[in-house]
Every structure is written in C-alpha cells, then in structure tokens.
Specification:
The chain is an alpha+beta fold. It is built from five helices and four strands; from the N terminus they run αααβαββαβ. A four-stranded antiparallel beta sheet has the order 2-3-1-4. α1 runs antiparallel to α2 and α1 runs parallel beside α3.
C-alpha cells in the first residue's frame, strides 16, 4: 500500500515541477528550468521504475500513476498561478473623459501607463496600456475596479519588455 502512496505523491510532485519548468523556460529562465528539469527526471525515473515492476500483478499501479498525473497537472496550475512568474500587459479601454483620471489613479500606485487615443463603435475612447509583473495583476485590477470607471480590460502574457517604467528584470 505504501508504494501506491509513493507513486501517487511522487507523480504529483513531478508533474507540478514540469508545469513550473515549462513556464520558466517560456519566460526565458533557461537556467532555472534546467535545474528543475534535472529533479523532475530523477523523480520520473524512480516513479516509472516503481510502476513497471510487477505491473501485471498490480495493475492498480497504473491507475495510481494516472491519478497522480491528473492531480499534478491541477496542483501545478495552482502553484504557477500563485507564483505569478513573469510579466503581463493590461489594456484598459475607457471613455475619453475617464482616461486621464484612471491614468492618474494608476500612476499613484507606481504603475507605468501609456495613454493613447482609440476609437470605439459610437465614440472616441482612451486606451491605457500597462506592462506589469504578473504578481501585481490582482492589485491593479482591484484599483481599476475601485475607481468606479467603466473599463473594458484585456490581459495578455508578455515574454520580454525592454525599457519602460517600474519593471526591472
């Protein structure tokens, strides 16, 4: 019975590490991705060796392995969201009269804001472009929401930003 728990929890750890490694590599953190990959493969080799030994006599090992894999994906996504590694771009589209006000509010929160003219279906708009660390996403969205300014907001992951205000790599 202990081997089933070992397979299950080791697989969760391994797949969670895989998720974090992939995020690091796609964000340009090759060195840290490689280190995590080393430990990931060590765990995988151990787990797969444990699963394959006596698999015909204990087919439930496959189910345990698959459950660990599924849970590892879920937990890996939660961990990645909590770590919030990397950068993102937030675009907020507001009315012309609210553009300057929202930019002022965000700048008071030490957020770099680029304000540009935009055109909506029925009226002129202002678009605010913010490049921020992903860790600040919730804080910034809360600031916009608390401003009570009606905004259309879009979020996008950003791999690299050169220059600008408030972001240091």
């Amino acid at each position: 019975m202990f081997s089933y728990f070992l397979i299950f929890f080791a697989k969760i750890i391994e797949v969670s590490l895989t998720t974090i490694r992939i995020v690091l590599i796609t964000r340009g953190e090759k060195f840290y991705g490689a280190i995590i990959g080393f430990f990931e493969v060590l765990i995988w080799l151990y787990v797969i060796g444990t699963v394959l030994i006596g698999i015909n006599e204990q087919p439930f090992k496959m189910v345990t392995y698959a459950l660990g894999f599924a849970c590892g994906n879920y937990i890996g996504c939660i961990l990645e969201d909590k770590l919030a590694l990397g950068l993102m771009t937030i675009n907020a589209i507001v009315s012309v009269k609210d553009g300057e006000e929202l930019a002022k509010i965000l700048r008071k929160q030490n957020v770099g804001v680029t304000l540009i003219e935009a055109e909506g279906l029925k009226e002129e708009k202002k678009m605010l472009i913010l490049h921020v660390k992903r860790k600040r996403k919730s804080e910034i969205l809360r600031v916009i929401e608390n401003s009570e300014i009606n905004a259309v907001i879009s979020l996008a992951d950003t791999k690299t930003i050169y220059g600008g205000y408030g972001i240091r790599k």
